[in-house]
Amino acid sequence: MKIAGYLKSSLIDYPDTLASVVYSPKCNFNCGFCHNKDLVYNSDEMMHQNIVLKHLKKRSKILDGVVISGGEPTLQQNLKPFIRDIKSLGYKVKLDTNGYKPEILENLIKENLIDYIAMDIKNSPCKYQQTVDKMQFDIETIKQSIEVIKRASVDYEFRTTWIKEYHDDNDIIGIGSLIKDSKRYVLQQYEFSDKQIRNEAFNYYTLDEMSRFQDEFKVQYNVEEVLIRGRF
User: Fold this and answer.
1) Each residue of 20-29: pLDDT tens digit?
2) What global pTM score does this model have?
């Protein structure tokens, strides 16, 4: 599998788990607020997977999990065998995904290769294509992935980075319609990065504003757990 970056240990990328993070290159979305410009536009392998696996084998008594992120990992042809190698070392695996490959998610789940899925919900259905900046886009793939994840026995979260230039109160309705009756939804506070795809500082929502959204998702859309993440 192509690996564009590797973080040896993290306490924030896998809930309640000390994990390494593997970053895959390339993405089929082009979200302006994405912090991983180098990954999205980089198709070169920067690290051989055997180096990562060797490190994971050495740290198997210290680390508990591995996060596979990106970019978009489901674009990688050798994702499944790479995960099998990780699982053979006794690790839990979390997959970060944009959800545009529901058939791959379903297959990974059926083969018990994933322990936790974090799927980004970019926006309301009516704004999705504009947000991800993709000429050929089918919202049904997003809906399919959501249903695949909700039906699965693995732990999961849906998450949205809320930005005033992209999201407003009406998007609570649109996003709520997508994730209704789900287990966990995370409202993420936007923060500018110089590695952002669009070199523009967008406006973020405050804790008070996001707390109001939190209440609406819980009450109106029956989401079991609604969390807020950010640097307030």
Assistant:
1) 999 999 999 9
2) 0.96
